[in-house]
Amino acid sequence: MSLDYVTLISSDNHRFVVLKDVALISPVLRNSEEFREGETGQIILDIDAEILEVVVEYLHYSHKYKDQVDASVVPEFKIPTQLALELLVKADFLDL
Amino acid sequence: MVQSLSLIALAACFQQASSITDVGATPYHLILPVLRRLNAKQLSLLEENSPDLTPDSDDLWALLIEKDFPDRPQSTRRNLLQAKPMRMPNKELYMQYSKDRENFLEGSAQRLRRITQKLQREKSKNSIVPINGFIAEPVIRRRTLAVPRPVKPASKYSNNSIMGKAFKDVQNRLLMFGPSKRHDPYAAFNTNRIVQRPKIGQRPPAQRPVPSPVPSTSVASSNSESSNLQKQWSVPPGHGIYLLPPPPSISTLTSSNMKKCDSRESCRSPTESSATRPVPDTAYTREVRKRKAQSPLLESRRRTQRPKRLGLPGNRSLSPKNQSEGVDHQNKRDSLAELSTYPKSIRSSIFN
Question: Could you tell me which residues belong to the region Disordered (chain B) (predicted)?
């Protein structure tokens, strides 16, 4: 596990710095590593900051519990309802 | 295992499905599960706000038709044979159906109102209403006959009982024989006329002068005659015999007495007749008497003789005498002629 970080840049230029391993849970982000983003370490996403924040939160959540077998221990991941619709779209985009 | 974010987001959308008014740029396939949960009104609103859904959401409309109008055809021929291709045939069909239903409901409300009104009217027809006053019924005038039919006196006995039948029988006979004075079986023992017979071993009762049968109003000349007769018929002492009054001589019968003298009363003197029970003078008896005066035939017949029972063409069985056709044609004709002179009411009573 390298200590590389990647920066996820939202549409309104918010920067979210995450560990590379965490970011690479998303297959889309993983694939983007092979391109220029791999060199710069910055991934520009056409996602609003609020939604990107939730996405990042989810990434951490999933990274924490990805090896967890017992489902009852894993807490429910709550999302704000007003973002639910857009989150749906973006989650589909990121294939999360 | 953690849930995928897509699913989580979708679940969140599910919960808030009713409050979604706009999906924006959301692609149809993503939001489809949510849309399936919506009803027609919400779906139409959504389509209005986010027209991106529209051509694809037609399937949703098909589903809605199936849900809301299960007994109607899913796709009508009208939809298929449109000259102008409809962009969303199912939606149009759904709208058509919903409109029909609305109209029907409106009509049914009206129909219900009409029916209840009709029922109310029917009810009020039969309801009991207090009346303050009433208009008198029109008097039905009955045609009065020229000759009033004889009204039978009302009997207190029911027609079906023996007494009633006897009563009816008597009434019918009265029509033929007139209102008779009640036959007094003890008339013969009337003391007015006879001298009392002394019982065996007893002395004859004191001689009482025999009352003069001739009325005092008779002519003076006849008086002497009657007194002579009386002497002739005087009672020898010691004997009591039944004395009949001398038959009234012709001269004693005045014109006034003549009228009242019927065949029945010929054996009695005028005074006697008045002394016996008087005939009730009702309208009925007056009528009968009048009719008797009019028809001489009845008078001529003797009391015991009943009027001839004639066999009419259909009633051969009634009169055994007239079995053969040839016999008594003449008589029949005569009798029929006779009959025709009778007043109608009596005629009818004879044959009943």
Answer: 187-352
CA torsion through residues A94, B3, B7, B11, sign: negative
Residue numbers in A near B20 (CB within 8 A): 85
CATH code for residues A5-94: 3.30.710.10
pLDDT, tens digit, for every residue of B304-343? 666 666 655 555 544 455 444 444 555 555 555 555 565 5
Written as six digits, the tokens of B325 are 């056709």
**Which of A92, A94, A95 should we substitute to test contact with B (largest number of B Cβ atoms within 10 Å)?**
A92
Q: Identify the bridge partners of residue A8 per DSSP, sorted by sequence position.
A: A16, A43
**Which DSSP letter does residue A16 get?**
E
Q: Give the 3-state DSSP-derived string for B46-101, with helices as H, strands as E and coil as C.
A: HHHHCHHHHHHHHHHHHHHHHHHCCCCCCCCHHHHCCCCCCCCHHHHHHHHHHHHH
SS3 assignment, position B221: helix
pLDDT tens for B207-223 read 555 555 554 444 444 45
Contacts of B214 (CB under 8 A, 6+ apart): B222, B223, B226, B248, B252, B269
Which of B4, B8, B13 comes nearest A85 by C-beta?
B13
Tell me whether residues A89 and B20 touch, CB distance under 8 A: no
The whole-model pTM stands at 0.45
Residue type, B326: G
DSSP state of A34: T
3-state helix, strand, coil in chain A (%, to 5): 50, 15, 40
Complex-level ipTM beyond the 0.95 threshold = no
The distance of A38 to chain B (nearest Cα, Å) reads 25
DSSP H helices in chain B:
5-15, 28-36, 40-49, 54-68, 77-80, 89-126, 162-177, 220-232, 255-260, 270-275, 283-294, 296-300, 329-341, 344-350
CB–CB of B94/B127 below 8 Å?
Answer: no
Backbone angles phi, psi at B244, to 5 degrees: -100, 140
